[in-house]
Amino acid sequence: MASTKQPKIFFLAPGWIIHSSFPLLGSVITNPSQPDIALFRPIPATISSNAQVSTPSSSPAPITPSSSGPAGLFSTFLSVFGLGDEPSFSLDRKHILSYSFLGERSVTLDLATSLGFSREAVAEGPVAQLFANNLGVYVVTGVKTISGARVRVASTKGKNWTVELGIEIAQGNQEGDDQGDVIFALEVAEIKLQEEGGVVLQDLETELGALQQRLDREFDSGTFKVAEGFDETTQEPCLVVTSSPTLVDPYTAGTAKVGGEHGIWY
């Protein structure tokens, strides 16, 4: 009997604040809603030499969010964080008309590399103390970045009057400048200690209800919300984990100004 492929689990990044040049991959963290706060970070050179990069074979056509059914991963990110700290218009996040992107990519670490970083982290005092206190510890095994995105929204300016406008998210240039690339989602694995002192990695639950219950137990109930979604580039189903709006700083979540230079059109 053929095995059913398990859906991937993506935690949304905490806003437009983490660029791909930030050494997030391989970091050891305690809370997926705060991936920029790490107990351990590997040497950047070891990340670049072991990372596996996946990019779509072609740029997807503009996507129109559906009012029913699972939402796209990047669409969910937009619905939570809008388009950053853009002062020239007010975005109604419930009225995203369409979106597309040129530079979406996934960067992941294989099991052996992730396990190696985890062992290095466990050898350090702060991480070992967390295990002693039975607290969860995670390693970031994958990140998804976006650049060259184009989003069209409807903004309500007054009673019975709306205006369509859009914004472009800068794309890194051909010389490898990735300053327009923003990390918008990440994958994690839990680090577990064995009785004999060894280190293993454990995947999170891939059933929605079980994952929600697990996060509610480990963190305060309401810290995370799990929903069904899909990866726009692969069209594969996934679970999307968002942080409670009360835990997101609305200023820092939007100060990236959508990756630099951008254009607005009516």
Q: What are the segments in which pLDDT stays under 50 over at least 5 consecutive residues?
A: 86-92, 171-179, 250-266
Percent in helix: 10-25%
Mean pLDDT: 75
Separation of termini? 54 Å
Note the run of SSEs as H and E.
EEHEEHEEHHEEEEEHEEE
Tell me the overall shape. globular
Q: Treating each run of at least 4 consecutive H or I residues as one helix, how many helices?
A: 5
Query: What's the β-strand tally?
Result: 14
Q: C-alpha Rg, in Å?
A: 19 Å
Question: What features would you highlight for this structure?
Answer:
14 strands, single chain, 266 residues, globular, disordered C terminus, four-stranded antiparallel sheet, alpha+beta, ten-stranded mixed sheet
Describe what this molecule looks like in 3D.
The longest helix has 12 residues, at 111-122. The chain has helices at residues 44-50, 73-81, 111-122, 125-132, 208-218; strands spanning 8-12, 28-29, 51-54, 71-72, 96-100, 105-109, 138-146, 150-158, 161-168, 182-193, 199-202, 224-230, 237-243, 264-265. The model is unreliable at 86-92, 171-179 and 250-266 (pLDDT under 50). Helix content is 18%, strand content 30%. The protein is of the alpha+beta class. The chain is built from 5 helices and 14 strands.
Could you give a short description of this structure?
It is built from 5 helices and 14 strands.
How are the SSEs ordered, and which strands pair?
Blueprint: E1 8-12, E2 28-29, H1 44-50, E3 51-54, E4 71-72, H2 73-81, E5 96-100, E6 105-109, H3 111-122, H4 125-132, E7 138-146, E8 150-158, E9 161-168, E10 182-193, E11 199-202, H5 208-218, E12 224-230, E13 237-243, E14 264-265
Parallel strand pairs: 1-13, 4-12
Antiparallel strand pairs: 1-10, 2-7, 3-6, 5-8, 6-7, 7-10, 8-9, 9-14, 10-11, 12-13
